[in-house]
Amino acid sequence: MYYCFGDSITEGIPGVSYVKYLGKEFLNYGKGGDTTLGLYNRLKNFLNSQTVENIIIEIGTNDILLPFLYNYSPEWQKTVKKIIASGRIPSKNIEEFEKNYKNLLELLVGKNVLIINIPCIGENLNNELNKKVDEYNKIIHKLCKDYSFKLVDFNSWQKSQLKTNSNKYFISKKPFKMVLDSIFVRSSKISNIVSKKRNLVTTIDGVHLNDNSARKLAELIKEKISSK
C-alpha cells in the first residue's frame, strides 16, 4: 500500500488528482493549502499512530503561493490568514524551506519514499513565481540525493508542454471563484474543457492539474516505482 501525502494537487480539489490513476493500492492523503511545515506536523502524527513503508510526497507549492496570494487581493489576505491559523504555515524564505523540507524527509528515513517536485505556478514560465519554484526545486533535488529518495521531475515535463505558452490566466483575485472550481471542476472531462476554455495546457487555473496532467503524473510515478 502506498500513502500519497501532499496539498490540493494531490487531493485533487480543485482539478484532478493523479492518485485516481495509480490504482486502489494508493491512498490519497492530500490536504488543500498544506505547506511543508504543515505536512511535517501531519505526517509526524500519522507515523506515530501507524506503521507504513511506502510513501509519496508532493509538497512545496503553498510555501511559495500563499505569501503571493496574501498580497494578491484583500479577499485572499483574509483566506490566507485562516489557512495559516489552521497550521498550514508557509516557509518565510528559502532557508526556512530547506530546513522544513529536510525535517520532513528525516521522518521518512528507512522507508520507501518517492518525492514529486514542485509543479509550475502559472503557465507563463517567465513569471517570478516559476523562477522561485526553480530555486526551491534545486533544494528538493539536492535533498533527494542526500537521502537517496526517488524523485519524479514533474516540473520538467510541464515545462516541455509550456515552452510556447505565455498565457497570463491565473488564479482569480476572488477566492470564491476557486471555491466554485472546487465544486464544479473535479471530473476528468470538465477539467479539460475548463483548461481549454482558459487557454491553459497543464492546469485548470495555473496551479491545479487538469486530467491530462494528472494522468501523466501518475504515469511518471509508476515508471519511477518500477525503476531500480
TrEMBL record:
Keyword match Hydrolase: yes
Full protein name: Lipase/acylhydrolase, gdsl family, putative
Pfam families documented for this protein: Lipase_GDSL
MF-aspect GO terms: phosphatidylcholine lysophospholipase activity
UniProtKB keywords: Hydrolase
